[in-house]
Amino acid sequence: MEIPYTVELRRDTGLNNGKIGIWLFLASEVMLFGALFASYILIRTGSPSWPRGDSILNVPLATFNTIVLISSSVTMVMAWASLMRKRFGTFRLYMAATVLLGGVFLVVKYFEYSHKFHDHLFPSTNNFLAIYFTLTGLHMLHVMGGMAVNAYFWGPGAKLWKTDPAWFTNRVENSGLFWHFVDLVWIFLFPTLYLL
Amino acid sequence: MTDHAATSDHAADIDKHVRIYITVFVALMVLTIITVLIARVHLPIHLAVTVAMLVAGIKGTLVACYFMHLISERKLIYAVLALTVVFFAVLLTLPVLTHHDGYWIH
């Protein structure tokens, strides 16, 4: 059975189904991270003392990771623009760069986490570390999810380009919207956890 | 308009988008450096939070408007996001009120 409205726009919404679907999903994601941000505010304002993030966490590494994630957002949007220009080879290069940059982000995070565990700093150590590990851990899961989808579109999923390029371009745009959201969340996590 | 002219218009449109993406990328890099430099000044906490969230807000707006194409999106997407913003605001305001009002939730 053919999936309806993958490319053509619905008359009632003015959108294809994939686009409205991903935005509704992102709206639910805003509430998920919003709940954790609200918890952070509640715990921090209710605490008699709170450490500055830079006294415990590694700011240069996190700054590097911020640059990596922003760069991956640019390569992601360039991958989509390449498909719009019908340049499939360029798309694959940009998509590979996006996945690799996601990998670099995870490797840096691995070193950050390892260093904390080595120093016997765990989520159970204090409220600051509990919220730090919860927020960055959830964010990391999103990075992994985004990488898996992007790797699929770089590899086996790219077969769709031969049979239905417009649908494939829309799918890449939607995975890009998720990836930019992951970047957007980090843009707020970085100052909140590391700098304040 | 001929097909050839339509195709070249489309390509020119994408080229314009790409130039915007690169400009936004540079702006995001500069704002990231500003975020880190401001943190080194060790401002009073209320001012530090305000400035950090202001810069993060500008960065987030750039990502949403240009990378996520929200600057030219359909009305239904705006409606979904407007509803999300309302609930998000309530979510963040509740704990702030709780603290400010001397823990009125017992």
Key descriptive features of the protein:
heterodimer, A: 196 residues, mainly alpha, Four Helix Bundle (Hemerythrin (Met), subunit A), 76% helix, 0% strand, B: 106 residues, 2 domains, flat
Structure description:
The complex is a heterodimer of chains A (196) and B (106). Chain A is mainly alpha-helical. Chain A has a single domain (17-195), classed as Four Helix Bundle (Hemerythrin (Met), subunit A) (Up-down Bundle), CATH 1.20.120.80. Chain A contains six helices and no strands. Chain A has helices at 17-45, 59-84, 88-118, 127-154, 160-163, 165-195. The radius of gyration of chain A is 19 Å and the shape is elongated. The model of chain A has no long low-confidence stretch (mean pLDDT 95). The longest helix of chain B is centred in the first third of the chain and has 38 residues, at 3-40. The model of chain B has no long low-confidence stretch (mean pLDDT 86). Chain B starts with a helix and ends in a 6-residue tail after the last helix. Chain B is mostly helical. Classes of the chains: A mainly alpha (196), B mainly alpha (106).
Topology:
The complex is a heterodimer of chains A (196) and B (106).
Chain A: H1 17-45, H2 59-84, H3 88-118, H4 127-154, H5 160-163, H6 165-195
Helix pairs in contact in A: 1-4, 1-6, 2-3, 2-6, 3-4, 4-6
Chain B: H1 3-40, H2 45-67, H3 75-100
Helix pairs in contact in B: 1-2
